[in-house]
Amino acid sequence: MSEDLIVIDGSYLEGGGQIVRTSVSLSALTQKPVKIINIRKKRKNKGLSHQHVASVKAVKKLCNAEVYGLYVGSEELIFIPSKLAPKDFEINIGTAGSISLVIQTLLPLSLGIDKKFTVKIKGGTDVKKSPPIDYVKNVTLKILENFGILTELKVLKRGFYPEGGGEVIFTVKPSKIKKFNLIEHTKSDLVEGISYVQNLDVNIARRMRKKAVELLNKEKLNPNIKIETSRGLSTGAGIVLWNDTIGSSCLGEKGLRAEIVAERSVKDLLNERKTGMALDKYMGDQIIPFLGFGRGIVGVSEITNHTKTNIWVVKHFLDVDFEIREYKENSCSGYTIEVI
Ligand SMILES: Nc1ncnc2c1ncn2[C@@H]1O[C@H](COP(=O)(O)OP(=O)(O)OP(=O)(O)O)[C@@H](O)[C@H]1O
C-alpha cells in the first residue's frame, strides 16, 4: 500500500488547512490513498484543528475510509478511501470552526457520487479567515452551479466565535462538470448583500447597510442589501456583498464602528471589481480543484499563495497542468488560469 500512497507535505508554500481539505477530498474522489505530513507546520497552532478533523471525518464517512492520525493537533494523516457511498449524517465541529470550510471539502465529491447526500453541520457560519456562509451561498455555489455542480444550502442558525452554535443543512447532488470559460466580470451594476446582527441591536445592521449603500451609490452602482437580525448561542455582526461572480465581506468586532465594517467590505469589492476579472482572490483558490476536473479557463484578480498551493495539491491527484498568464485586455488587469 505504501508504494501507492501519495505523500503531500502539508508545510508547502501557504502550508494551511486547505492542503488537508483538498487532499482528502480528491483522495476520496480519485480513490488514491494519501499521506499528509507536516500538517499546518507554519501555523501557530500546528496540526489539525477541530475544523479540519470535522472535514476529514465527513469525507471518511462518505467513503468508509481507513484513517490514521485523525485527532486535533495531529501533524500526520493517512487517508485510505473506499468507494464513495453517499449517506445523510450530522457533523458537529464542536467549536466555532468554519462550517464553510467543511462545505469546501465536501463540494468536489459531487463529481463522484451516484445519489445525493445531506449533511447537517454545526459550528461557525461567520468566522475569520474563512468564507462567510453568505459568500458560500451567493458566490461559490452560484458560480459552481453554472458549471454543473448541484447543491442546496440552508442556513438554520448563525454561529460566531467563540461559542459557535451555527447550523446549516447542506445537500450535494450527483453532478457533471462543464468546461470553464469565465474570464471577465460581467460589469453588472447590481450589488447585492446582507447586513446582519445576532444578539445585537438591529441599528448596527442598519448603519452598516446605510454606509455601504452610500459608498456604492457614489460609484454609480445599484445596491440591494438586506438586513437580517437573529438570536442565537453566539453574538456577532457582519456584512457580505456580492456583485455577480465576485464577493467581499467584513465581520464586526468589538470596538469597530459599523461604518468601518461596511467601508472595508465595499472597498474590497470595488478593488476586485476594478480588475475586471470574473473571480475574486478567494474564489481564485477555491475554483482550482473544479478547474482540474472541468478544464478550460478562468480569470482571477490575483494569484495568491492559496491558489498556488491548491494547484500544487491538485496536480498530485490529477494528470493536469495549470497555465497562469497575465491578462490585460478590455481594460482588465489580472490573470488567467488555464487547464488544457
Ligand atoms: N473573507 C473570505 N471570503 C471568502 N473566502 C475566504 C475568506 N477568507 C478566507 N477564505 C477562504 O478560506 C480558505 C482558507 O484556507 P486556509 O488553508 O487558510 O484555512 P484553514 O483551514 O483555516 O487553515 P489555517 O488555519 O491553517 O489557515 C481559502 O479557500 C480562502 O480562499
Helical fraction equals 25-40%
Number of strands: 16
Q: Can you tell me the CATH class of the largest domain? A: Alpha Beta
Tally of individual domains: 4
Q: Report low-confidence residues grouped into runs of 5 or more.
A: none
Strand order of the largest sheet: 1-2-4-3
CATH architecture title of the largest domain: Alpha-beta prism
Task: Tell me the quaternary state.
Answer: single chain
Question: What small molecules does the structure contain?
Answer: adenosine-5'-triphosphate
Question: Shape from CA axes?
Answer: globular
- Order of helix and strand elements from N to C terminus: EHEHEEEHEHEEEEHEEEHHHEHEE
Q: Sheet bearing the most strands, described? A: 4 strands, mixed
Please name the fourth-level CATH homologous superfamily of the largest domain: RNA 3'-terminal phosphate cyclase domain
CATH topology annotation of the largest domain: UDP-n-acetylglucosamine1-carboxyvinyl-transferase, Chain
